[in-house]
Amino acid sequence: MMRERLVARAQLLAHCRRFFAHRNVLEVETPLLSQAAVTDPHLDSLQTRIAGHAPTFYLQTSPEHAMKRLLAAGVGDCYQICKVFRDGETGRNHNPEFTMLEWYRLGFDQYQLMDEVEALLTTALGSAYQAPAERLSYQAIFERYLAIDPHLCPVDALRALCRDHAQADLPSADRDTLLNALMGIVIGPQLGHDRLTFVHDFPTSQAALARLLPGNPPVAARFEAYARGLELCNGFHELTQPDEQRRRFEQDLAQRAALGLPAVPLDERLIAALQVGLPDCAGVAVGLDRVLMVAMGAESIQDVLAFAVTEC
Fold first, then answer.
1. Using one digit for the tens of pLDDT, what is the confidence trace for 269-288?
2. Less crowded by CB within 10 Å, the N or C end of the chain?
3. Cα angle, residue 72 at apex, residues 64 and 102 outer, rounded to 5°
4. How far apart are CA 273 and CA 65, in angstroms?
């Protein structure tokens, strides 16, 4: 079994590299360590120190910031396969250290990038996922599975849905925490069982690093892909405005403070790169361990790793 999982991983990595070589997308490598940390209140970075260096260093939760600095420097279309680290994420579908594939395509919007993600994943996942992918808006999936409009549903009603459908009592949770709970516990596990499913056009409050799209209501140019109930990727038509990016980072930090989470330094080098000019692009991060879980029919992420965190 150990050799089987290692062979499957090697074949997946080789497939990814062939895929991007055929499209003339450059493989890059950036540091795992940074003096800045992710500000997202829902993610926690692992910390370390280096002798002779005063600041705390953080292990990356994603190579996104460093890759955007390369894009601003003119590198062009690029991808990276690397280890990323997220504190507190352990379970059937999570390991604190995991393998991420991240790539950026100049001139793409979120819909063009979904096409490319579908091409990569359907060839990686095997015959069960060869049918055209299903594509649904965030609003459409909430209407389908919970019969609500997530943009308009009152917070008290969301709390009741969490109690009734997710067995989660969240009396003080904010709107996005409640929506995330419903998405993660109730809706997500039902997606992608007969074909790959994309969810797109998220609420603007969940935009993260995505630009916003006009409409009623406006939505974020963000998408996720699901197979066998597992979220495999998170993609954006990338935000390029430095002032707006700083505002979102500062908003994250204020939310972290309100939740009693540790303060972290925001990435001034990324802001500086955006000021130089990030080209119009779309980017996506794919969890390769979860792709392997689907491809191999594994029930736990530990079944596709050489060694889980408990075995290190």
1. 999 999 999 999 999 999 99
2. N
3. 25
4. 9
170 or 103, which is more confident: 103
Domain count, the chain: 1
Identify the DSSP state of 91. B
Task: Give the total residue count for the chain.
Answer: 312
List C-alpha distances in Å: 249 to 106, 161, 222. Answer: 24, 30, 17
The domain that holds 38 is classified in CATH as: 3.30.930.10
For the stretch 92-120, what's the b/e string if a residue is b when 16 or more beta carbons lie within 10 angstroms of its beta carbon? ebbbbbbbbbbbbbeebbbeebbebbbeb
216 in a domain, yes or no?
A: no
What integer pLDDT is reported at residue 65 of this predicted model?
A: 97
- Do the Cβ atoms of 42 and 17 come closer than 8 Å? no
Distance, in Å, from the CA atom of 28 to the CA atom of 104, rounded to the nearest integer, reads 11
> Burial code of 158-174, b = ≥16 C-beta within 10 A, e = fewer?
bbebbeeebebeeeebb
Strand 57-59 and strand 78-85: pairing? unpaired
Is residue 200 in some structural domain? Answer: no
| Beta-carbon-side half-sphere exposure of residue 104 (alpha carbons within 13 Å) | 26
Whether 97 is in a domain gets the answer: yes
Instruction: Tell me the pLDDT tens digit for each residue of 48-68.
Output: 999 988 789 999 999 999 999
Comparing C-alpha atoms, which of 239, 284, 308 is closest to residue 102?
Answer: 284
Tell me if 117 is assigned to some domain.
yes
The DSSP call for residue 164 is H
Query: What average pLDDT does the segment 59-78 reach?
Result: 98
Residue 182's pLDDT is: 96
Query: What is the pLDDT averaged over residues 218-223?
Result: 96
Who's near 147: CB < 8 A, 6+ residues apart?
Answer: none
DSSP 133: P
Which whole number is the average pLDDT over 36-55? 90
Helix (H) or strand (E) holding 222: strand 219-227
Kindly state the tokens that stand for 157.
């009603």
Q: Say if residues 235 and 260 touch (Cβ distance below 8 Å).
A: no
